[in-house]
Design a protein that fits this description.
- The complex is a heterodimer of chains A (about 425) and B (about 400).
- Chain A has one domain (about 10-395): TIM Barrel, CATH 3.20.20.
- Chain A is about 30% helix and about 20% strand.
- Chain A has helices at about 45-60, 80-90, 105-115, 135-155, 170-180, 230-240, 280-295, 305-310, 320-335, 380-390, and strands at about 10, 20-25, 65-70, 90-95, 115-120, 155-165, 190-195, 195-200, 205, 210, 220, 250, 260-270, 275, 345-350, 355, 360, 370, 375-380, 395.
- In chain A, the strands form 5 sheets. In chain A, strands 1, 2, 3, 4, 5, 6, 7, 12, 13, 14 and 15 form an 11-stranded mixed beta sheet that branches. In chain A, strands 10-9-20 form a 3-stranded antiparallel beta sheet, with no helix packed on it.
- The model of chain A is unreliable at about 400-419 (pLDDT under 50).
- Chain B has about 400 residues and is of the alpha/beta class.
- Chain B has a single domain (about 10-295, about 340-395), classed as Alpha-Beta Horseshoe (pyruvate-formate lyase- activating enzyme).
- Chain B has 11 helices and 18 strands.
- Chain B has helices at about 45-60, 80-85, 105-110, 135-150, 170-180, 230-235, 280-290, 300-305, 320-335, 335-340, 385-390; strands at about 5-10, 20, 65, 90-95, 115-120, 155-165, 185-190, 200-205, 210, 245-250, 260-270, 270-275, 345-350, 355, 360, 370-375, 375-380, 395.
- In chain B, the strands form 4 sheets. In chain B, strands 1, 2, 3, 4, 5, 6, 7, 10, 11, 12 and 13 form an 11-stranded mixed beta sheet that branches.
- In chain B, a hairpin with a 2-residue loop joins strand 8 and strand 9 (about 210).
- The chains are: A alpha/beta (about 425), B alpha/beta (about 400).
- Chains A and B meet through helix 1, strand 9, strand 10, helix 7 and strand 20 of A and helix 1, strand 8, helix 7, strand 16 and strand 17 of B.
């Protein structure tokens, strides 16, 4: 394995002390993306209930940012009020949108309400009018349009989510390349490995003692070929392309602690170049200090252009010292760089749930937990609760072929997954 | 008490303060509601235990490795096991009933590198010579074990007690005894009873098949799942009226359930000054992780005896600030307190897994007691299910079955 666990910081996030909360304002959407785990069952939700869920989620998770998702949240008529409500409660509102309905006017209204960040879901697997059949590299033109829009609005950070399929894996470096050329405008990129419920007959799914038809869920996968991509597969592809790519922190799985459910690299650069990465120590200091002073961990900081202040952490972080070296070497060649802002841009590699026999390997410290009927649940499993009343319990009925089994160490429990 | 105002320990699956090693499941006594089946043939070889230690440390960062069982002192190579853990720069701590412990054995274990003991002592054990005793009467046994560890020197000493409905009222007398032994006893863990019986209104499934829990160790003649951490807190407060928790772990299903709660007091002799607050615990955990790369499980006896240094954190922690003021007020009346050592003593209350009405289980989120099953980490209190059925059990309310969809 190319990533050394001991070199990374495990984010100290838990269910009750987490930087992220999540609320869904609607399950209506104007696109239908493969792998999306939300289907239309109830339409737009009442503003009153949305606010109740936001308040409950803030109380239960102690979150610093609240993700507003769906469905497509920009379709909700009260979206500006939802953003304002979150901001007034002292959290950073973050929209997760496909961007189709975002105009300059709406963006300004959202900014005035306190919007802190927009995460655009843009990838070549989406049935987006006018963009069908494009490669990920070609989709960068659309990403640029949204990044420019946020730049024009000012004060709103911009991030992108990209679902990665086996066929689009080779195109991932092109997106990272584009992001590096937009350090001032793009603050985050998430590469999310495609996942789906395996419907090849190898599992039965139970809600309580009842077997249920998992085909009722939207994100079923007819075979397991497409759902085996891992965060490390994506990371390795990026590393192969760039030669060096340094992760600093991660979240592991609830059942398989050696799986990387969320692997983060933080790039440091300016308008005219890339300087290097943040290391694990800097990640630890920033999370710890933020929690000590504000009582909360953070997902993102308000001012991504304040990267130069991070250089102070070079006293503790070897990777950051290398980055400072890169910055100073560049400044020697072009002294004007000393007066340019330094930006941070995070790249995360995510690996949603895996179905195991009897359990599901979820993100330990999931930052997208939401409130459903008073309970905190992972947002990616909401439809299981909505359709069946509870999270499904998978039972493998066809033996899994052993992959990379190195022989049991303990009393049983042969290892038959690839992570 | 507002649970969510406490510091949520930053312990997780992969980065935790502790992990759990079982060299054997053989035990020399029988305890009511033990979650491990007594298996005389389960002793593992030293080589296998070495591999397990490496596998555990490969899966999880930790400060301490709890060597448990079964009864670990029955393992003939226990000294080697302790030394193996110590060699890997992890604190070896024995979870033992103490039946096999002698002063000579304690010294040998210390020389092998043992960091300390946590003794499981309560009145629901079939302990030779101590059956039928009350918890108060068992304080004599606790005292002899604490004295033995103290005589061996430089090891920590803690106690575990499973709290049954019929012993809840005796918790205060045990806490009072612990308070009187602040120098010798660093921690006290009170775990609420969890027992499933035939009256439990759920059916169980593993791998889609119905299973019976009657063969597991945590099946008893009657169900007892009602005792909560808050019940135990109320009992503790009969002795320490101002006792507060400073940190906690929540549940996997109900994040605000108090599955594991910690309160730490500063004492000198029987004189209490106050306790750590959430900010102080945060500083300790964050500082330890920053400098050592691991969250802290146990402080050394030397560190525990320098509790006055913690007053420095009173600048950030209101609870410690109050403790400092109390200390100064008492010390100006009795100046000897300025020179006397002050000790830190922790009381930990544990509320093991609960079942929700739907059958969903509420485990400890950030469970410190994860152990190895195959190449996986599973909660030690659930290991029996994996061993027996190859998967965790699912509980389903007893009702007529229908197929959906």
């Amino acid at each position: 394995m190319s990533v050394r666990r001991e070199d990374l910081y495990r984010f100290p996030w838990s269910r009750t002390d987490n930087p992220g909360g999540w609320v869904e304002v609607t399950d209506e959407c104007d696109l239908s993306c493969p792998g999306c785990y939300r289907q239309r069952l109830e339409g737009h939700r009442e503003l009153r209930r949305i606010k109740e869920d936001i308040a409950a989620c803030q109380k239960l998770t102690n979150c610093d940012r609240m993700g507003i998702a769906g469905g497509e949240p920009l379709l909700h008529p009260d979206i500006v009020e939802v953003v304002g409500f979150i901001a007034r409660r002292g959290m950073k509102p973050m929209l997760l949108t496909n961007g189709e309905n975002l105009s300059l006017d709406l963006g300004q209204a959202l900014k005035a309400a306190g919007l802190a960040k927009i995460h655009f879901h843009v990838d070549s697997g989406m049935p987006r009018p006018g963009w069908a059949g494009k490669t990920e590299g070609e989709m960068n033109a659309l990403r640029q349009k949204y990044a420019d829009l946020c730049w024009e609005l000012g004060g709103i950070q911009c991030g992108f989510n990209i679902t990665v399929f086996p066929r689009t894996l080779p195109e991932v470096p092109a997106v990272v390349e584009w992001a590096r050329s937009n350090m001032s405008r793009v603050h985050h990129i998430s590469f999310v490995a495609f996942r789906g419920i395996p419907l090849d007959g190898s599992y039965e799914f139970y809600a309580g003692e009842r077997t249920v038809d998992a085909r009722l869920l939207q994100h079923g996968a007819p075979d397991q070929e497409g759902i085996g991509l891992t965060s490390l597969d994506i990371f390795e592809r990026v590393r192969q392309h760039f030669g060096e790519f340094v992760p600093c922190a991660y979240l592991a799985g609830t059942s398989i602690p050696e799986s990387y459910k969320f692997l983060v690299c933080v790039q440091v650069g300016g308008r005219s170049g890339f300087y290097g990465f943040l290391g694990a120590r800097a990640a630890e200091i920033t999370q710890t200090a933020h929690h000590l002073w504000t009582g909360r961990y953070f997902d993102f900081l308000r001012r991504p252009e304040g990267g130069r202040r991070l250089f102070l952490l070079g006293a503790f972080d070897r990777e950051l010292r290398r980055t400072i070296g890169g910055y100073l070497a560049g400044a020697l060649r072009r002294p004007a760089r000393l007066f340019h802002p330094v930006y941070v841009q995070s790249i995360s590699f995510q690996q949603p749930n895996e179905i195991l026999d009897g359990e599901v390997n979820m993100c330990d410290g999931c930052m997208n937990a939401m409130v459903f009927r008073g309970r905190l649940i992972p947002s990616c499993r909401l439809d299981e609760y909505r359709l069946f009343g509870e999270a499904l319990h998978p039972v493998r009925i066809v033996p899994r072929p052993a992959v990379g089994t190195s022989g049991p160490v303990g009393e049983g429990g042969d290892r038959t997954w690839k992570y | 008490m507002e649970i969510l105002n406490l510091y949520r320990m930053p312990w997780t699956m992969a980065d935790n303060a502790m992990t759990w090693l079982e060299p054997t499941r053989k035990c020399n006594i029988t305890c009511d509601a033990c979650f491990a089946r007594n298996d005389p043939g389960s002793e593992k070889s030293v080589e296998r235990i070495g591999r397990e230690i490496d596998a555990l440390l490969g899966l999880r960062r930790c400060d301490a490795m709890l060597i448990a069982g079964g009864e670990p002192l029955t393992h003939p190579a226990i000294l080697d096991i302790v030394a193996m853990v110590k060699k890997r720069r992890v604190k070896p701590v024995l979870i033992t009933n103490g039946v096999g412990l002698t002063p000579e054995r304690a010294l040998e274990l210390k020389r092998a590198g043992l960091f300390g003991f946590t003794f499981h002592v309560d009145s629901h054990q079939s302990r030779p010579g101590w059956t039928g005793k009350t918890e108060g009467e068992l304080n004599e046994l606790r005292q002899s074990l604490a004295d033995m560890v103290d005589d061996a020197g430089r090891m920590i000493c803690g106690f575990n007690m499973t709290v049954f409905p019929d012993t809840l009222a005796e918790v205060p007398v045990v806490v009072a005894w612990a308070l009187g032994n602040a120098r010798k006893v660093q921690s006290y863990t009170l775990a609420a009873l969890r027992l499933i019986g035939p009256d439990f209104p759920f059916e169980f499934f593993a791998g889609g098949q119905p299973v019976s829990l009657e063969t597991t160790a945590y099946y008893g003649s009657g169900t007892s799942l009602d005792l909560t951490a808050m019940d135990i807190l109320s009992a503790v407060r009969k002795v320490i009226p101002d006792f507060e928790f400073c940190a906690f772990l929540g549940g996997t299903a109900l994040p605000h359930s108090l599955k594991w709660a910690l309160g730490s007091r500063i004492l000198s002799g029987t004189e209490g000054f106050g306790q750590l607050g959430p900010k102080a615990m945060e500083l300790i955990q964050a500082g330890h992780h920053f400098f050592k790369g691991r969250y802290m499980a146990f402080g050394s006896p030397r560190m525990n005896s320098r509790a006055k240094l913690l007053f420095l954190m009173g600048a950030f922690d209101p609870s410690l600030h109050r403790a400092l003021r109390t200390f100064l007020r008492k010390a100006f009346r009795r100046p000897v307190l300025f020179w006397r050592h002050a000790y830190i003593q922790s009381i930990c209350v544990v509320q093991p897994p609960d079942f929700l009405p739907s059958g969903e289980r509420d485990n400890c989120d950030g469970c410190p007691n994860k152990t190895l099953w195959g190449e996986r980490l599973v909660s030690a209190c659930l290991l029996e299910e994996y061993a027996a059925f190859g998967a965790p059990i699912t509980a389903v309310p007893k009702r007529s079955g229908e197929t959906d969809g």
